[in-house]
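are you around this afternoon, could really use another pair of eyes. what follows is a protein written twice so to speak, once as letters and once as structure tokens for the fold. i want to understand how the tokens follow from the sequence so walk me through it. anything you notice is useful, everything is just below.
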Amino acid sequence: MINVKIFTFNPLQENTYILYSDDLECIIIDPGCYFDPEREKLKDFIQKTGLTPILLVNTHCHLDHVFGNKFIKETYNLDLYIHQGEQVVLEHAPTSGLMWNMPFDNYEGPIHYLVPGEVIRLGQESLDILFTPGHSPASVSFYAQESGFVIAGDVLFRESIGRTDLPGGSPDVLLKSIMEQLYVLPDETVVYSGHGVPTKIGHEKKHNPYVRA
């Protein structure tokens, strides 16, 4: 079973995820830790739980999801994994930070590309990489079939969807991603979003006013 730990960080209230297996290896997804106490909170949890970080990934590269990339790299010597189509968004993130009055130092180091259709291994289980653009040019989601959840970034929220007015966004593409990549998952699948509380696929198919099955 994959365990899920959620932190809500930075002024934009972004959800940072640590996924960890029974053998205590962990994946860090979208580290949004902006302030030093947030970074220490993340680090303390990893240390006190006895975890070994093995992978750093971003669902997409808007500024609130990448604030902590550099910190994770420096602390755990992990390279960054993103979809290739998100690299331009990552490069623009510090400029966006200045616009939001939240300057930060961007990740510096090797970048590896996630390939939709492939899987990420964590312990005895795997995460399927789903291509879910629309909120951003090349956002990806991570589906853990055996544990029954999906990390959806800012694609799908509880009774809402991601905004599409940022560069590279598209309402038509976003709805297509939700219908073809997320709504095909079992109804009991838990959706962990980039902001807000978890939901389930079945609930969204019935109650989401923006996209109903």
User: Anything to note?
Assistant: The chain is about 25% helix and 30% strand. The first strand starts at residue 3 and ends at 9. Residues 6 and 156 are 17 Å apart (CA to CA). The chain has a mean pLDDT of 97.
